[in-house]
Amino acid sequence: MTLDRHALGFGAGQRAIFAADPWSSRGRLFDEVTSPTRSDFQRDRDRIVHTTAFRRLKHKTQVFIAADGDHYRTRLTHTIEVAQIARALARALRLDEDLAEGVALVHDFGHTPFGHTGEDALHEALLPYGGFDHNAQSLRIVTKLERRYAEFDGLNLTWETLEGLVKHNGPLLTPDGEGTRGPVPQPILDYCALHDLELASFASLEAQVAAIADDIAYNTHDIDDGLRSGYLSFDMLEEIPFLAGLMAEVRGLYPGLEPARFTHEIMRRQITAMVEDVIGYAQDSLRAVRPQSAADVRAAGRVMATFSQDMAVTDKQIKKMLFSRIYRHPEVMRVRANAASIVTDLFNAYMNDPALMQGHYWVDCMAGVPEAAKARHVGDYLAGMTDNYAINTHRRLFDHTPELR
């Protein structure tokens, strides 16, 4: 894999032939008059930023509960970092930057309070009714639950943005119609019955760079937050050759550098190395496949914007370290158990008495609905909560609320 710096799109001002074309979008579920000043993908990006769901991300957990400290990343700051990396990758590869940014900004809309802990707890509660999947919930939010416009529910995003949201991690169906990662969540199937997102094909390169930007962001910044928390140490990072090399480089250039600056110098080099690796791999892939359109990218049968084989090994090593040292740390697990109990308690309370969901627009229509429909709306309400709102609501409804610190 060789990075071709002469082929980079910085300042080129022209999309590649294989980039998604906002002026030839497959359109929206509900037809709208086009804007004379913004492309359809720009409008999608802008709509995403102005949602309630986007604002709520600032009080949703990434890894560490907000009560642990102001400097840890939230779901919002993580999302902004993903969007920055996705846009940089898109620019280098001469893709549509607005589409890549939009997919990055919307990719975590469906996350519950308390991060993956809340998702696991809500999935367990909803298992009898089809379970819970944060990606499917993101789609529900932008196609149904955001209620802002007079003529439709949701945001009425373009086909390309919705495709990127649903398929940024790859096809959901095999060519034979089998689920690639188990059954496809019902909310995705329901939407595709109205607006087919072609679940058996790969997504655009813009969606692919948004997906790998997510990995780059959390691989790097979970290390940063782990060092800040004390769950990680520089000695632990030495166990991964890639990180050991970065630390040796920084020590050689800046002997005796204070820990905070030392950490930042490592992190910025890690992001740069991973971004350049993805660009080089994508360039090699594009030369091999030679797509002549965005449709050719979808039909290529492979991801073209991802890590090289060597960086993929490093990626696995970093994820293994993060999993064992942070995500499964005994103290983190204690907090996770308490957070899960809050979600479970609230779900059971709302199922027993939907009127407790104060202000939820659907409460007035809840009488006489099937149990599964009621459970799904309770799930919608819970998934939309921020950490703080879930904790405060639990305190109002129950005599004892577990400590999350």
TrEMBL record:
<dbReference type="InterPro" id="IPR006261">
    <property type="entry name" value="dGTPase"/>
</dbReference>
<dbReference type="InterPro" id="IPR026875">
    <property type="entry name" value="PHydrolase_assoc_dom"/>
</dbReference>
<comment type="similarity">
    <text>Belongs to the dGTPase family. Type 2 subfamily.</text>
</comment>
<dbReference type="InterPro" id="IPR006674">
    <property type="entry name" value="HD_domain"/>
</dbReference>
<dbReference type="Pfam" id="PF13286">
    <property type="entry name" value="HD_assoc"/>
</dbReference>
<dbReference type="InterPro" id="IPR003607">
    <property type="entry name" value="HD/PDEase_dom"/>
</dbReference>
<dbReference type="GO" id="GO:0008832">
    <property type="term" value="F:dGTPase activity"/>
</dbReference>
<keyword id="KW-0378">Hydrolase</keyword>
<protein>
    <recommendedName>
        <fullName>Deoxyguanosinetriphosphate triphosphohydrolase-like protein</fullName>
    </recommendedName>
</protein>
<dbReference type="Pfam" id="PF01966">
    <property type="entry name" value="HD"/>
</dbReference>
<feature type="domain" description="HD">
    <location>
        <begin position="75"/>
        <end position="219"/>
    </location>
</feature>
<dbReference type="InterPro" id="IPR023023">
    <property type="entry name" value="dNTPase_2"/>
</dbReference>
<dbReference type="GO" id="GO:0006203">
    <property type="term" value="P:dGTP catabolic process"/>
</dbReference>
<dbReference type="InterPro" id="IPR050135">
    <property type="entry name" value="dGTPase-like"/>
</dbReference>
